[in-house]
Amino acid sequence: MNGESKKNLLLHILDILQKYSDEDHRLSQKNIIERLEKEYDTEVERKGIRPNIEKLINAGYSIEYDEKIRHTKGEENAVWTNFYLCRDFTDSELRFLIDSLLCFSHLPNSQCRELIEKLEGLSSVYFKSKMKHTSVFNDDSGGNKELFYTIEILAEAISKARKVTFNYGEYGADKKMHCRTQKDGSDRTYLINPYQMVIKEGRYYLICNKDNFDTPANYRVDRIMNIKLTNEPVKPITELKGRNGEAFDLTRYIKEHAYMFSEEITPCSIRIIKKRISDVIDVFGTNISIIQENENDVVINLYTDKMAILKFVKSYAPQAVILDPPSLVQEMKEILETSLKDYNEG
What is the pLDDT of residues 197-255, one digit of tens each? Predict the structure, then answer.
C-alpha cells in the first residue's frame, strides 16, 4: 500500500467512525473492515486497523475503545475493539440547538434546513434518524436572505468599533419586505453605531445608536438590508444617556427592555394574580420587588419601558392592573376605552 493509499485509508476509517459510531453504537475491527469494503471498495487486514486508530488518537481525535486479552498459541495479546468517536456535543445538546433554530421564525426555510443538516452532521447517522419527525415551520417567501451576511458584517463592525450604514425593512400589505423611505420616496439610509446583538423573545436585535442622537436604539437584525461597513469609528457607548442621567449600562439596558422597545425606563407598580407571577418573571426577569401579597394577588414594583408594561398588562387584563405611575394608568385607561368603543361600534 503506497503513501497515498495509507492516507486515504486513515481518512476512510475516520469517516466511518464519524458516521457510524457513538457511545451506543460501537464498532469492532470487523465492522470497520466491512464498512471499508462496502463504502470505499477498500480491502484491509484486521491488523491494519489498530495502527490507524492509534494515528488518529495521536492526532488529537478522542476515540474510546475496549481492550481485551486473547490467548493465541500460548501467547497473550491485547486486542482493541468496540471503538467509538467521542463527540463535542451530546445528542440532547444538538437537539436543543436544532429546536432553537426552529424557534427563530425569521430564518428562511432553506437556510434553516441547511443549518440543521450541519448540526446533524456533528453526530452519527443514528441521530439523524431521531430527527425525522422534526418539521421546519419557516416560510422561504418572507425570510431575509441577507441575514447571515448582516450578522457577519455587524460582528466585524462591533469587534472593530466601526459604524455601519443600512436600510431598514418593513412588511407591506403585499406581505413583502420594503425599505423604509424618506418623504421624497427614496430609500432611507441609517448611519449607526453598533454595540451588541442580542436575542429577545425569539428575535435577533441590534443594540446601537443613531449617529445624530445620544440615546440607544434597537433594530431587528432580520429587517436590516444592504448593510455596509464604514471606516468611521463608532461613538463611544459611554457618551449615551442612561437611566436618570446615569452612565449607560448595556447589561442593565438589556434586562430592563423586555420587549426591546428603545424608550426610557420608568419605575412602575402592577397588581397581578398570583398564578401569573411566573409570567412576570418570564418577561421581566427576577429583578422585581414583590411589595404586597394576599391570598389572591401580589403588587410588584419593577423598572421597564412604558411600551413594555402596557403590552404586558394588555396581554393579561383583567388579571393584571397598572397601579403607578398615574400617567401610565391614564394611558392604559384610554387604550382600553378606545378598544371597547371600537368593539361596541362593530
Answer: 988 877 889 999 998 888 889 999 989 999 999 999 999 988 887 766 677 787 778 77
Both ends of the chain: CA-CA distance in Å?
84
* Contact assessment for residue 332 and residue 311, using Cβ atoms and an 8 Å cutoff: no
For residue 318, the Cα-to-chain-centroid distance in whole angstroms is 33
- Long-range Cβ pairs for the range 34-37 (8 Å, 24+): 36/9, 36/12
Domains of the chain: 3-85 (1.10.10.10), 91-130 (no CATH), 147-256 (no CATH), 265-344 (3.30.70)
Rounded to 5 degrees, what angle do the CA atoms 337, 338, 342 make? 115
Closest of 153, 184, 180 to residue 167, by C-alpha: 180
Predicted structure pTM score: 0.70
* Helices of type H across 131-211: 147-160
Tell me which residue of 233, 218, 238 sits closest to 163, measured CA to CA: 233
